[in-house]
Every structure is written in C-alpha cells, then in structure tokens.
C-alpha cells in the first residue's frame, strides 16, 4: 500500500492486484506467477 501511495503521489500510473485471504505465503506455484507480474510491472512502468 505504501508503494501504491508513493506512485500515486508521484503521478505514476500503476496497478494494484488484491489477493483476498492471501498472506505473504502464497500457495502452490502462485508465488512465481505473482513475482513475474511484479517484475513485468516494474519493467513497464518504471523504466
């Protein structure tokens, strides 16, 4: 949430992916999928 706020304050477009009921420990292979989405976001939006 702090990153989202900082990006909003800086006028940078971004997306927020809500994962209801999920903590930092993602089940199964979902962690890798989420990390790939995060990396794609950083490359696209902050390059």
Q: Mind sketching the topology for me?
A:
Elements: H1 2-9, H2 30-45
Comma- or semicolon-separated keywords:
2 helices; mainly alpha; Peptidase S9 prolyl oligopeptidase catalytic domain-containing protein; flat; AB_hydrolase_fold; 47 residues
Write structural notes for this entry.
The chain is built from 2 helices and no strands. 51% of the residues lie in helices and 0% in strands. It has one domain. The longest helix is centred in the last third of the chain and has 16 residues, at 30-45. The two termini are 21 Å apart. It is mainly α and 47 residues long.
Instruction: Indicate the multimeric state.
Output: single chain
Helix content: 40-55%
Shape: flat
Total separate domains: 1
Can you tell me the residue ranges where pLDDT is under 50 for at least 5 consecutive residues?
A: none
How many angstroms separate the termini? 21 Å
Helix and strand element order: HH
- Computed structural class: mainly alpha
Q: Tally of extended strands?
A: 0
Largest sheet: none
Query: Tally the helices: what do you get?
Result: 2
- Beta-strand portion reads under 5%
Rg value: 12 Å
| Average residue-wise pLDDT | 84
InterPro entries: AB_hydrolase_fold
Protein name: Peptidase S9 prolyl oligopeptidase catalytic domain-containing protein
Organism: Streptomyces caledonius
């Amino acid at each position: 949430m702090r990153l989202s706020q900082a990006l909003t304050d800086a006028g940078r477009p971004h997306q927020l992916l809500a994962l209801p009921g999920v903590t930092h420990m993602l089940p199964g292979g979902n962690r890798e999928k989420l990390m790939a989405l995060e990396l794609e976001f950083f490359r696209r939006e902050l390059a």
